[in-house]
Design the sequence.
């Protein structure tokens, strides 16, 4: 239940300006039928959505170096992202990429509020796509409300059926694309339509299709209000200089209807004509005139609606606008404030360090494992020999020839392959041994360094240290 308490009662210590909103988590959802109105912010969203949707649907179909541009190959535990292949060893880089993304979101929130929610969040984007289908099949807001109330007949069945079918189609394409990031999409799609796709791919495609269908078709704003954690803690990042969608109470109140040419100031009225269009266009169904609310996703649609009304009335636009609390109170705001500068500096350092690590990432990993069964053995020539398993992991996106040798304080004799070709993405494992004259050893346990260098690109090289063990007592 949602109640507004505008007047204090005898038990109430709050002032009459305060609005107390009580949200009952078990309340029945009131279906929101939004009105579609043209305007600057609706157009602006096209410029964020079209590239985003284009990238989402097309990226899996683009091949780079003969493989899908973005492919999260879970069975092989490799993530191919554009020109780079990330291995489990690169997990920290991926973790940092996520941390940087979160930090970028926080930085944007400090400056421009919840624009992520209103302009780029997949929940908002897909909800709006589903709403457009609804609008196309069932008509505008008034027609949809009428259809909702009308008894079931052939016309209602046709319109509703068309809407649900198109929703299902969009949900399926969305989900198939998503699964295509994990299974090569050029194989997945024909397999799906010839019923030969593997059962895991089929399961996840239908699972995510149902999720998309429910989230964007039915749950919509409830995901933002009750499920999304970001909606809960974003207010912590707001300050008095954060851009938010605000209603100018001073200018708009007292609200009220009036004739177009009426001297409404003389009637003691403000600029708000109480047309409720700002509420009708709101995808979360709130009234921005009640002040800042956590349900507001900063989509700006109420600004478009109100500016259109102001234009028709011959008033100045901006009764509802993107502004800051400081600007509303004092007419100016501070963009470069300590909190924002702190976020930008931290973000710049993180991005710089991440970029440096990516550029200098060594696409080669060498591992050396001592044979634990035999500490050492003596050869017929009186040398001490240790046996190892050498693993060369070519993490590059092309094949490489590598040279192998050992270094250390002593002149070790390396017995193994000196040159080897390792294909891209391959881990080559091979036994090698090292021998040393025990008379030279100052200690029974000495360091040995294995050096692997690419013959076609000397910048690619790696070393791995291990121990060489000899007899405890030397003669
Ligand atoms: S109040 Fe305005 S900006 Fe906020 S969600 Fe509703 S329409 Fe969008
Ligand atoms: S759209 Fe503007 S004029 Fe109409 S009710 Fe909302 S704030 Fe008032």
Sequence:
């Amino acid at each position: 239940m949602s109640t507004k308490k505008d007047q204090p009662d005898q038990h109430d210590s709050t002032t009459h300006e305060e609005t107390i909103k009580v949200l009952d988590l078990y309340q029945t959802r009131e279906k929101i039928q939004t009105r579609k109105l043209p305007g600057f912010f609706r157009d602006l969203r096209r410029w964020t959505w079209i590239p985003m949707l284009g990238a989402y649907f097309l990226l899996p179909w683009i091949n780079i170096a003969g493989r899908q541009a973005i492919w999260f190959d879970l069975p092989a535990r490799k993530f191919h992202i554009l020109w780079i292949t990330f291995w489990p060893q690169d997990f920290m880089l991926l973790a940092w990429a996520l941390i940087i993304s979160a930090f970028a979101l926080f930085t944007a929130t400090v400056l421009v509020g919840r624009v992520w929610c209103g302009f780029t969040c997949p929940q908002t984007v897909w909800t709006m796509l589903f709403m457009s289908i609804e609008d196309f099949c069932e008509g505008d807001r008034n027609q949809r409300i009428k259809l909702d109330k009308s008894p079931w007949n052939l016309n209602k069945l046709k319109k509703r059926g068309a809407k649900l079918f198109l929703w299902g189609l969009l949900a399926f394409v969305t989900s198939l694309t998503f699964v295509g990031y994990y299974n090569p999409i050029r194989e997945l799609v024909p397999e799906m339509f010839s019923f030969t796709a593997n059962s895991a791919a089929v399961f996840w495609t239908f699972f995510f299709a149902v999720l998309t269908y429910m989230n964007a078709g039915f749950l919509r704003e409830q995901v933002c209000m009750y499920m999304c954690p970001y909606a809960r803690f974003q207010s912590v990042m707001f300050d008095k200089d954060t851009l938010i969608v605000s209603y100018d109470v001073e200018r708009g109140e007292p609200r009220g209807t009036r004739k177009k040419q009426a001297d409404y100031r003389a009637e003691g009225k403000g600029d708000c004509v109480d047309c409720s269009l700002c509420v009708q266009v709101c995808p979360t169904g709130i009234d921005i005139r009640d002040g800042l609310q956590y349900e507001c996703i900063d989509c700006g649609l109420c600004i478009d609606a109100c500016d259109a009304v102001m234009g028709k009335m011959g008033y100045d636009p901006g009764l509802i606008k993107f502004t800051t609390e400081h600007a509303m109170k004092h007419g100016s705001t501070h963009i470069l404030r300590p909190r924002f500068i702190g976020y930008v500096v931290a973000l710049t350092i993180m991005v710089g360090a991440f970029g440096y690590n990516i550029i200098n990432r060594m696409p080669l990993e060498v591992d050396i494992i001592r044979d634990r069964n035999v500490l050492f053995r003596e050869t017929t020539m009186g040398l001490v020999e240790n046996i190892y398993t050498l693993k060369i992991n070519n993490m590059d996106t092309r094949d490489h020839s590598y040279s192998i040798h050992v270094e250390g304080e002593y002149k070790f004799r390396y017995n193994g392959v000196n040159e080897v070709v390792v294909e891209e993405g391959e881990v080559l494992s091979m036994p090698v041994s090292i021998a040393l004259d025990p008379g030279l050893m100052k200690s029974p346990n000495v360091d040995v360094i294995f050096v692997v260098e690419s013959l076609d690109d000397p910048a690619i090289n790696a070393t791995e240290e291990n121990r060489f063990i000899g007899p405890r007592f030397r003669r």
Summary: The longest helix spans residues 154-180. The mean pLDDT is 89. Residues 247, 252, 255, 272-278, 289, 305-306, 309, 319-320 surround iron/sulfur cluster (ligand 2) (CB under 6 Å). The chain has 15 helices and 16 strands.
